[in-house]
Request: fold
Amino acid sequence: MSGTPILHCDLDAFYASVEQILDPSLAGRPVLVGGGVVVAASYEARAFGISAPMNVRRALERCPDAVVVSGSFGEYSDYSDRVMEILRDFTPLLEQISIDEAFLDVSGSIHLLGTPADIAREIRRRVKAETGLPISIGVASSKFLAKVASAAAKPDGLLVVDPSDEIAWLHSLPVRVIWGIGPVTERKLHDHGIQTVGELAATPVDALGRWLGPGAGHHLHALAWNRDPRPVQTTRRAKSIGAQSALGRGLTDPEELSGVLLHLADRVGTRMRKKHKVGKTFTLRVRFEDMTSATRATTFDAPLNTTAAIHRAAMTLLDDARSDHDGPLTLVGIAMSKLADEGAIQMELALDDGDVSHAGSVAADHQSEIDRQIDRARERFGRDVVGRASDLLNKDRRRVDDGFRKLAERD
DNA sequence: TCTGGGGTCCTAGGACCC
DNA sequence: TCTGGGGTCCTAGGACCC
Ligand SMILES: [Mg+2]
Ligand SMILES: [Mg+2]
Reply:
């Protein structure tokens, strides 16, 4: 609908394909990556009805000859980087959405590189030649439809959706292909007699709103007509950093749980420190034997990233997270969010007479917060105020307000 | 011998502020 | 006596994606 030609590039059976390259004896054979559960299955394995996340035992019952490998995540990350570098040769307008997928806005590349279909063919050729990996590409007029197209193109294929018959094609597909419709929403739609995207498109948006909530109803109705204005976003930053661990049959002992949580806290803390991130909010998630789960969160006065503080937060919330449900835990997970760059930011305000005053500091990547504070200062002083941020210390928002108060008094 | 580990986004109520 | 409205932050739950 946006009219801009978008490519969605998605590596096929990514982890399994990398394993087949690392060990050529696996080429052409059914390969399963995973431990308790299949994380990725090669297309040879998928022919036996295997797909993620299937239990490895069940998968081996279906395909006893499958080779199970535990996974080489460092290698996957390296291959991912190499592929993304190739994609970047075609346009800087690239949005990586997972380890093996990216959107490319090629509207500015056509003049130089040919039609979107030409570009897609060349990408597929180069990725295969330079990494050995099969990559499928969908080309369409929106991110949403390009993603649907790449899935339809698999394996190792290219699908260009012509804008003149994109709606007819989209409407012929089952609702489940829509990005955002999972098992629960699919079931709800089936309950109302809706099987295809065309039937979804023909359903009044009010009805969808009643069944799915107004937000989801509106969103899905728009997608059913390929109305998807979301632009390719080249600058996305991680919003949370987390780790989790399944606990087999389950753990009850607080000492043991503390040990697992310490391990998770150290994983998360180490990764945060490596990325020079601090986080203000901590979330603990626990899962019980019946697969229900509970989460508890807490927000710190100041952002942090130390293993000890994260572990302390986890232990503080643990009892409460278990309070509504008896029995052992089958999974614990933690995450840090409200991330900011370590070292953070100091905000300065300049009045229109050129006088500069320290006005406190805010979390580093909260540009909207900085803009808001500047607007407030403009209102208070009734004249032009310019905000400036530089990386210094990270303190609380109260400091900003204190700064404003001092400025106001001096004024 | 059901369901790993990494994430994103949405909703909704209460607190709090203006 | 019964009481506005908007905005943001925080927490909890849930759906979904790879
Ligand atoms: Mg893929
Ligand atoms: Mg993918």
User: Anything to note?
Assistant: Residues 34-39, 52-55, 57-58, 97-99, 180, 213, 215-216, 238-246, 291, 331, 333, 335 of chain A lie near DNA strand B (CB under 10 Å from a C1'). The radius of gyration of chain A is 25 Å. Residues 351-361, 388-401 of chain A have pLDDT under 50 and may be disordered.
